[in-house]
Each structure stands twice: as structure tokens, then as C-alpha cells.
Design brief:
The protein is α/β, with parallel strands linked by helices. The chain has a domain at about 40-135: Sandwich (Immunoglobulin-like), CATH 2.60.40. The chain is built from 2 helices and 11 strands; from the N terminus they run αβββββββββββα.
């Protein structure tokens, strides 16, 4: 019993200690830093997955809408200088930022050290102030109504199925009793004739 408790304690501690280390390498921790030249695009997406921003460096024109989407199982945030999503972003959460002025706009996740990225707007020269960034929360599309038509599948109804389950359970119990008795009965020894 003590050994099992010790193994569980060690496994739990290893899990807790191991989780933060997955993001220590930051934006490129799984495949290296990634770049995307999205100049000429009206909309761009930055995915948050595997404790990384993908792409980690995105080049856009002024006025381009950049949507950050958390596709990860864990909570993140996107914090920039005077812009970003300072609220917790759970899996499926998103927001859109539109960068009006040229410059470089770095961002990071405050929960995972080293998880960083940047948006290079225009020529990407100079530091982006963040003052001219507009943020809109992401509005998911309205849920669709799905109508299903259920037809008779020709299977067993609940009554016969319940009876079959009870009979099967009783039969299994009877076999168990017979097998246990056969193990406890002494073997018969036949006498020579």
C-alpha cells in the first residue's frame, strides 16, 4: 500500500514539475520559430497550440485584422504593450486585433515563460506603441439547429433486452458457483478392483 502511494506521489510531482517546462522554449519550442508573410491579406490567424504561437512572427500591412485563437487544452493570454487579451483564454476562445500603425508589436503569454511572438506591421520599423490597436472580442457564429429523424431500427425493445440481461446475469452467476464448488470438492480416489 505504501509503495503504491509513493508511486502516485512521484508521478503527480513529475507531472506538475514537467508541465511548465513544455513552454520554456517559447514560440518555437516544438518546430522552431515560424514566420508568415501575410502582406496583402485582409485577415490573418495566429494559432495558439502546444504552448506556442504559430506563426511566431507575422508580417502584415497596416489595417490587417489578426485573429488569435486558442486551440490548446490549457489556458493562455496574449499580452502586448497597451494591447492584447489580458483575460484568460480557454480552448476555443479568440479575439481580433487590428494594427493601424507601422512598427513591431511583440506579445507573450504570461502563464508560460518564453512563449512569445510578434506582429511586424508595414515595414516593421520601430516599436509599435499599441495606442492605435483596436481589439474586438471574437463572436462565434450562431449555433446551427440540426433536426434528426429517428426511425425504428428493428432492434430489441427495452422489455426483451432487460429480460435477456437478467437471464445472462443469472447464468453467469450459476457458472461461477459451479466452478467454485468444483475447486473446493475433494478429489475422489477410486479403489483398485
Amino acid at each position: 500500500m505504501r509503495r503504491a502511494m509513493l508511486v502516485c506521489l512521484i508521478a503527480g510531482a513529475a507531472t506538475v514539475v514537467g508541465v511548465p517546462s513544455t513552454a520554456l522554449a517559447g514560440a518555437g519550442c516544438h518546430a522552431g520559430a515560424t514566420q508568415a508573410d501575410a502582406t496583402g491579406e485582409k485577415e490573418v490567424m495566429v494559432r495558439i497550440a502546444d504552448c506556442s504561437f504559430t506563426p511566431s512572427l507575422t508580417t502584415v500591412d497596416p489595417g490587417t485584422a489578426v485573429t488569435f485563437v486558442n486551440e490548446d487544452w490549457t489556458t493562455h493570454d496574449v499580452r502586448g504593450n497597451e494591447w492584447g487579451s489580458f483575460e484568460d483564454m480557454k480552448e476555443g476562445d479568440a479575439f481580433t486585433a487590428t494594427f493601424s500603425e507601422s512598427g513591431i508589436y511583440p506579445f507573450a503569454c504570461s502563464y508560460h515563460p518564453g512563449m512569445t511572438g510578434a506582429i511586424a506591421v508595414g515595414g516593421g520599423e520601430g516599436a509599435g506603441s499599441g495606442e492605435e490597436v483596436s481589439i474586438q472580442p471574437f463572436e462565434p457564429p450562431a449555433p446551427q439547429t440540426v433536426t434528426r429523424v429517428v426511425t425504428d431500427s428493428g432492434g430489441l425493445s427495452a422489455g426483451p433486452l432487460a429480460v435477456a440481461s437478467i437471464v445472462g446475469g443469472l447464468l453467469g452467476a450459476a457458472v461461477t458457483v459451479v466452478l467454485r464448488r468444483s475447486r473446493t470438492m475433494p478429489a475422489r480416489v477410486s479403489e483398485p478392483v
